[in-house]
Structures are given as structure tokens and as C-alpha cells.
Design goal:
The complex is a heterodimer.
Chain A lengths: L2 H13 L21 H15 L10 H4 L2 H13 L1
Helix pairs in contact in A: 1-2, 1-4
Chain B lengths: L9 H10 L4 E5 L2 E4 H17 L7 E5 L4 H12 L3 E4 L6 H11 L3 E5 L3 H4 L4 H4 L3 E5 L11 E4 H4 L17 E7 L7 E6 H14 L7 E4 L6 H13 L2 E4 L6 H10 L4 E4 L1 H9 L3 H4 L8 E4 L6 H10 L5 E8 L4 E6 L13 E2 L4 E5 L12 E6 L6 E2 L3 H7 E2 L2 E10 L5 E6 L3 E4 L2 E4 H10 L3 E11 L3 E10 L6 H11 L8 E4 L13 H17 L5 E3 L2
Parallel strand pairs in B: 1-11, 3-4, 3-5, 5-6, 6-7, 10-11, 10-12, 12-13, 13-14, 26-27
Antiparallel strand pairs in B: 1-2, 8-9, 9-19, 14-15, 15-16, 17-18, 18-21, 20-21, 21-22, 23-24, 25-26, 27-28
Helix pairs in contact in B: 1-2, 1-9, 2-3, 8-9, 11-13
The chains are: A mainly alpha, B alpha/beta.
Chain lengths: 81, 536
């Protein structure tokens, strides 16, 4: 399973209650009200544990985390660093 | 009407537009909008509403995110003599249907951001006759009723106020809040209620026209609305930032815009303290004069951490309030932040609070009783609901349902809720309503809901339920919940059991249910398996 598929599965299961019809790879979690601030903490924990990375507080930015595409690109940058 | 002292809520905007026409009133993304521009557009919108048939006292639903169009609509609706009814942006179709019915509103102001709610919504059947829509997406939704685009709605060549006459005691806004009978109750607030409370808040926080407030709380929520009104009352500047999910963006803008005030509920501060670069921004916030916290009890550990994290010059105001009180009831003077840390302070100007026993008699200092408030900010009643009104308003004031005590220095402490309402995040939740909604899914035959302490949310909702059939799992039930209730009302933990503990009378044994939850919590620490699901 690719990174993006793992994240998608997590988001769908935890925030969309199994319904993935509205989630495209470029869907904004913020604009579509998919994740709130408490949920974002769960996403961060999931990313850190699943991909064995440390996300710094100043990396909590829309360009890193606000869509599956953005997370995918962010993970690639983190894992290659 | 333009006297020195505002009488009507929309006069906050009008007076500031006269005093500071070219001053920036709102900052939203890359937009900077002056008081004159907002006032002119609100006047134009009011004229359009009147043209559409809106009459004095008519209710107008307002379903918009925090953005300039919300502000223009809020004041524009009141300039037309109508009643602004803000709608929770997490509303689902059944909730919207209920609001339309309860308010009798025939007009809705909204945007294409809510097409997800409108998808299967029949406006004509619900009773809506007019929709004003911001940023419409042609072809995506046939509303089946008259539609006016936002551009048309604010395009009147006459940008002067329509000068509709209303009484200061007439209803300005109805704000819906969870009620003890299950359905939300509409808190009817008059112009006088909101104006008086706003002025008391301005005085308490020593706000001036030089203040710049960062707003991350929604305007549909009474605390968010009070931030708007208190800053517009003085001609100050409001920065709208809807990206608190990514707190670094908020902190960066606070530094850039030289923000002087920030306000949040406990979970706002928990998030800022747990996962944000607040510490590294500490030296970049020299203008941050104060932070205020309301919306429920904030844990002492969070208060201590917040004091350490904020710049030394930043004052922290702890506040307590209620939608029924227009917004705020008490404030803890920052000089007592450490020495009276568990207190919500003393009543704000014009408000009195007494602590009473079950017979309504005042109790001595240190003795727990119910907080009863009096003052010009207290609502006239719940919309269309005399029974609910009579249950909380009497000749001694508004019975808050909050239990607490006063110390010998007059400081008030809250110890709990009298009924079964609990605060989750900034939202007051009625457990009975959630139990009813769970049963409405058709997948659950009985349910018990309670709140358990949570460091982030204050409380989190835990449900114990009996599924309608053994094939039903927690995921299926929560999916069904998500279709009919906003996210904040969905239990974070759902335990499925074969039956709920009962008393001999057949009533659900709440104490045994609580023991089950406690048992589950203990088991979970040892073994993370079981018939349960957790979502956040």
C-alpha cells in the first residue's frame, strides 16, 4: 500500500465514517470541513507513528497537511531528508 | 439613528463608519475592508431584503462561514428591521429543516460552500422562498425557489441606510443552543440585550479603537459574535482567520498584523499549547495585549501552561457566560489569575449573580448553589418556547443551570451542571438530544450518553448503546450519525452492549452505566480490544 493510500484509509475510517466519495487527492480538509483541530492532532500522531517521522510544530501548515496530495509530497520530503 | 450611544446592534457599525470611514474594519485573507465599505454594503443588502418582502421582525437565516459577507449580512439583516438567525456551519439537512420550521424564516443567506448541505434539501417544501447566495456555482444546484446572487444583493445604487424603525426591546438575533428537552432552543436576544452586554465587555477588557482582534471562533457562536460586536462598537479591527487547524498560520498572521487580542475556548488553548509554535512566536508578539478564555472550564494545568507560554505583558482574562446572557456574565481580573485561578471572577458591569438554593434563597459564601443572573443582557426568553422560558426565567433572574459558589471575596467558582448538559470543546451538548439522535438512526434501540474528562475538549462524549441487530457494528452507527448530526455531537467513544443496566422501575441505571464506562476505560489500558470504536 502506498503512502497516500495508507493516509486515505486513515482519513476515511476516522473522519468520513467509511464514506470516501467526497475525498479526492486534492480535496482541502479545511475547506471541506473534514478534519477539525482535534482531528488534526490524530492525523499528526498517525503520520509520525506510521511513517516514523517527527513533525515539527512549525511544519503544521496547509501546504504540508491540507490534502492527501500535500501530505504525500510532505512525506516524500521528510523521508528523503 | 446616529446618537453617541448606540441603541441598536447595527449602530455599532454605523457609528464606527461615521467616526472612522476609511479605517480597516476587517482583514480576511488578502482583503482589507473599511468601515465605510462594510456599512454601504450592509445598507444595500438591507434594501434588497426589503425589496424581497422582508418586514420588521421577520427572521432571516444566516449560514455563512466567518468572512466579510457574514458581517455585512449580520448587520444588513438588522438594518432591514429583521432578526438575524445564525446557523451552525456544521448543520445537516434535518437540522436546517428544523430551524426553518421553528423560526418560520422564509429567507436564507448562504454560499456555495454549503452545497453539501443543500444537495438533497427541498427549500420550497421547507418553507424558504428566497435565497441570497454568495459565490454561486451555476448548474450545480437547482434551489427551486427565488435566488439572488450576492453581487445583485449588494448592488443597490442607494447605499444609505433604509432607516427602518424598530424598538430597542425587539428581537435582534436568535441564537440556537442545546436545550434540556432535546431540541435546540432559540435564545431571543433584543437589541438592548446585545448592546448592553457588548458595552460591558468593552469596558471590562479595556478595549479601544486601537485594538486588533484575531478571530478564530465562529461568528455563529455567541462568543465569536461578541468579539465582532465589541470591536465594531469601538471602531477597532477584526482579523478573520479560518485556518486554526494549522495554528502556525494564525500565529504568523498575529505577528504580521500586530494583533492585540486573541480569544478562545479551552480546546483552542489546548491545541495552541500542545501542537503549535507558540513558544517560538513568544518574542514576535509584542503587541498582544491580552488573551481571553470562555466557553467552559479550562483545566488548571492548561492555565498554568498558558501563562508560561504567553509573553509576560499579555494579560489573560478568564470569562464565563451563556448564550442566554447575550455572551458574558463574569470576568476574572488578570491580577487574580494566579491567586484565584479556579474562579471565573466577578460579574461584569450591570450584571449581578446570586448563588441560590433549591428554593431560590441565597446561600452563604462557600456553599454550593445554582448561579442566577440578572442584568440588561439577559434574554427575554426562548423563541417560540414559553415552557422552556418559564423553566429558566423568573423574578429573581436567569437560572443558568450551573452550580457553583462564591468565596468571601466575592469571586465565583463553577462546580458543575445542574442538569445533564455538558461542554465538549466550546459546545454545550445535551446528552438526551444525542441519545434521541442515536435512536433516530434506526440502528440503535437504546443508548446512554455521558461526558468523561478530556484534556483537549474538557469533556468527550461516550455512548453505551444496544444495537438493533447483531450484524450492526459501531462504524455503521457512527456513519449514520454523521448523516444526521454535526460532528461535535457524535460520540467520541461508542460501546455496544447487549442491554443497558436498568433500575427496577425500568429506567436506565445511570450509575451502573458510568461504572461500565469506567470498567471499559480500565480494561482499555490493559487490552485495547473490544466492541467499541473511538473517533476524534
Amino acid at each position: 500500500m502506498s503512502n497516500i493510500e495508507k493516509v486515505r484509509e486513515f482519513i476515511v475510517e476516522n473522519f468520513l465514517f467509511g464514506d470516501d466519495t467526497s475525498l479526492k487527492n486534492d480535496t482541502s480538509f479545511l475547506e471541506e470541513h473534514i478534519i477539525d483541530s482535534t482531528g488534526m492532532l490524530e492525523v499528526i500522531t498517525f503520520l509520525e507513528e506510521t511513517f516514523d517521522i517527527k513533525i515539527n510544530d512549525d511544519e503544521l501548515l496547509p501546504e504540508n497537511l491540507d490534502s492527501l496530495d500535500n501530505i504525500d509530497a510532505f512525506l516524500k520530503r521528510k523521508q528523503s531528508a | 439613528m446616529n446618537t453617541n450611544q448606540p441603541v441598536f446592534v447595527h449602530e455599532f457599525l454605523e457609528h464606527s463608519a461615521l467616526r472612522f470611514p476609511d479605517k480597516t474594519a476587517l482583514i480576511f485573507q488578502k482583503e482589507r475592508i473599511t468601515y465605510r465599505e462594510i456599512d454601504n454594503r450592509a445598507n444595500a443588502l438591507a434594501r434588497k431584503l426589503i425589496e424581497l418582502g422582508i418586514k420588521t421582525g421577520d427572521r432571516v437565516l444566516l449560514l455563512l462561514e466567518n468572512r466579510p459577507e457574514y458581517v455585512i449580512s449580520y448587520y444588513g439583516i438588522m438594518k432591514a428591521g429583521a432578526v438575524a438567525v445564525p446557523v451552525n456551519t456544521d448543520v445537516k439537512p434535518p437540522g436546517l429543516q428544523w430551524l426553518v420550521k421553528d423560526t418560520g424564516a422564509e429567507t436564507l443567506v448562504s454560499s456555495s460552500a454549503f452545497y453539501r448541505v443543500f444537495h438533497d434539501f427541498n427549500f420550497a417544501d421547507a418553507g424558504i422562498k428566497n435565497i441570497i447566495i454568495f459565490n454561486p456555482k451555476p448548474g450545480q444546484k437547482d434551489f427551486g425557489v427565488a435566488v439572488t446572487t450576492w453581487e445583485d444583493a449588494i448592488s443597490s445604487p442607494d447605499e444609505s441606510s433604509p432607516n427602518v424603525t424598530v424598538d430597542k426591546d425587539s428581537t435582534a438575533s436568535i441564537i440556537y443552543t442545546s436545550g434540556s428537552t432535546g431540541n435546540p432552543k432559540g435564545v431571543a436576544l433584543s437589541h438592548q440585550n446585545i448592546v448592553s452586554n457588548t458595552q460591558a465587555i468593552c469596558a471590562s477588557l479595556e478595549l479601544t479603537d486601537a485594538d486588533i482582534q484575531m478571530v478564530v471562533l465562529p461568528f455563529f457562536y455567541v462568543m465569536g459574535k461578541s468579539l465582532l460586536n465589541s470591536h465594531f462598537a469601538l471602531g477597532a479591527t477584526v482579523v478573520i482567520n479560518n485556518t486554526f487547524l494549522y495554528p502556525a498560520t494564525v500565529l504568523k498572521q498575529m505577528a504580521q498584523e500586530q494583533v492585540t487580542g486573541f480569544s478562545g475556548v479551552p480546546s483552542t488553548y489546548a491545541f495552541l499549547l500542545h501542537r503549535s509554535p507558540l513558544a517560538s512566536y513568544r518574542d514576535q508578539l509584542p503587541h498582544l495585549r491580552y488573551c481571553s478564555q470562555a466557553g467552559g472550564h479550562m483545566a488548571k494545568t492548561l492555565k498554568i501552561a498558558l501563562r508560561r507560554a504567553l509573553p509576560e505583558h499579555t494579560k489573560i482574562f478568564i470569562m464565563y457566560g451563556a448564550t442566554e446572557a447575550s455572551a458574558r456574565l463574569t470576568l476574572l481580573d488578570p491580577q487574580f489569575y494566579e491567586s484565584k485561578m479556579d474562579s471565573v471572577g466577578k460579574p461584569i458591569a450591570g450584571t449581578t449573580i446570586s448563588i441560590v438554593d433549591e428554593d431560590g434563597k441565597p446561600v452563604p459564601a462557600g456553599v454550593e448553589g445554582e448561579l442566577v443572573a440578572q442584568g440588561p443582557g439577559i434574554m427575554s426568553g426562548y423563541w417560540n418556547n414559553p415552557e422552556a422560558t418559564a423553566a429558566v426565567l423568573d423574578d429573581i433572574g436567569y437560572h443558568t443551570g450551573d452550580l457553583g459558589y462564591m468565596d468571601t471575596d466575592g469571586f465565583i467558582y463553577i462546580s458543575g451542571r445542574k442538569d445533564n448538559q455538558i461542554k465538549v470543546g466550546g459546545n454545550r451538548i445535551n446528552t438526551q438530544e444525542i441519545e434521541d439522535l442515536l435512536l433516530e438512526t434506526g440502528l440503535v434501540v437504546e443508548a446512554f450518553i455521558t461526558g468523561v474528562p478530556d484534556t483537549m475538549l474538557g469533556n468527550k462524549l461516550v455512548a453505551i448503546a444496544v444495537a438493533a441487530n447483531k450484524e450492526t457494528d459501531t462504524q455503521e452507527i457512527l456513519s449514520a450519525c454523521a448523516r444526521i448530526m454535526p460532528k461535535y455531537k457524535i460520540p467520541q467513544t461508542l460501546l455496544l452492549v447487549s442491554s443497558l443496566p436498568k433500575k427496577i422501575t425500568g429506567k436506565i441505571d445511570k450509575n451502573s452505566c458510568l461504572e461500565l464506562i469506567s470498567e471499559h476505560s480500565n480494561n482499555k489500558q490493559n487490552n485495547n480490544k473490544g466492541s467499541e470504536h473511538e473517533q476524534h
